[in-house]
Amino acid sequence: MSKSLHVDAAQPVTPAAAPAAGRNLFLDGPFAPVARERTDTTLTVHGQLPPELQGVYARIGPNPIKPPARPEKYHWFTGDGMVHGVRLEGGQARWYRNRWIGSKSVQKTLQRPKLPGDTRGVFDTVNTNVFAHAGRIWASVEAGPMPVQLDAELNSVKHGLPGFTLSLPFSAHPHLDPVSGDLHAVCYDAIQHRQVFYVRVGSDGEINKVVRIHVQHGPMIHDCAITRSKVMVLDLPVTFSWWELIKRSGFPYIWNDRHPARVGVLPREGDTKDIRWYEVDPCYVFHTCNAQDLPDGSVVMDVVVHERMFDRSRVGPEADTKPRFERWTLPAQGHRVERQVICTRAQEFPRLDERRVGQSYRYAYAVEFSADLLGGQALLKHDLQNGGTTAHRFGADRKPGEFVFVPRSADAAEDEGWLLGFVYNLRTQRGELHVVNAQDLGREAQAVVEMPDRIPMGFHGNWIADAALTPRT
Fold first, then answer.
1. Residue 27's domain spans which residues?
2. pLDDT digits over 317-376, tens only?
3. Based on the structure, what is the number of domains in the chain?
4. What is this structure's pTM?
5. What is the CA radius of gyration of the chain?
6. Residue 464 to residue 85: CA distance in whole angstroms
7. Burial code of 446-467, b = ≥16 C-beta within 10 A, e = fewer?
8. Is residue 5 situated within a structural domain?
């Protein structure tokens, strides 16, 4: 066990207290928001942190800065964004920070000046992903707003980034091609229901390609996938609902039986006319893991599949959705997706060794999923070559979020590295950062860093190595 010095720069605000238990699952227990920003440098570490980890593990999620006016209508996907980060350096946990993302309403509540830059869109809440690209840290969301640039200590700097000279929506889930250094995304705008956009951002942060793709009904496209030559477009039956908007529901997207489910294959260097569509049985995919080209011209894509989504619940994912891990084949000769179940265990947040994005790979990682207040979920590792799934268990009193893979070194084997993620401890009601050996999930964690406060269940994060933040002129 090790500790370091402590400096507290907490900034309390009007408490975002959770409502009474049972009024809204996503404002209760492990989902309940925290009431302040803080900086802590006294962090207890159990085990040994790998000394090669030099950077920040950061994850973002919803954290309403004020209690929702109608808690029963609050939707998990709409809360003010808050990023949580732990800096690791020299085998030590140097600091923990949490910071609200600086939307207009957040800055006003915190009595801070409005951020510079264009917010774009009808709302500016950013709460879904945080990652590094072009030497900077980005926080992003879907449906219209610009990303928000963060500094190395996770403070909001401005809306938009230098390369975003076009007024385009961005995505919660861009994918980095490790070979070209380009960032690829399929993006949509909540007020434009007949088109979505393929956007490519170069390693310099400049947008260098845009393709408009024709759709109907305003589909919610949370993620995409890339191969070495193609981009996958998920046009599935969760779409915008004017009726939900008129009713002032917390979230205007619902299951739509009238919307045909399909997957588009767009050549990276192609245009609108070049996209090829494949039919698929109605279902919904929040997250892809990876995709790859086959020698015969077919494409395979690994995804987590929900049978339906936002069919009954109006506050978040249904608790009984039971998403499973599948491999989808889009055949060169045909127009229908072929589906193969890899694992039936309910799971979400699939990840891989990001050095293998768009290429063949062997290992996929995910966490068991349950939209409830209970713990006991496991971290999963799928062997896509030999078959089988192994698990790392945290215990009945812990609820894990997304885990990301970090290789030991640039030339390490595909699973030679660490899995990092935040875990909510239901007993202590605090967060923990777990570092797990990816080659031996059956062992106890390599290290556990205790957080000074709760880290509410959130969405996505990434390991941001110091080398990824090389300043650019």
1. 11-469
2. 987 888 999 999 999 999 999 999 999 999 999 999 999 999 999 999 999 999 999 999
3. 1
4. 0.94
5. 21
6. 10
7. bbbbbbbbbbbbbbbbbbbeee
8. no
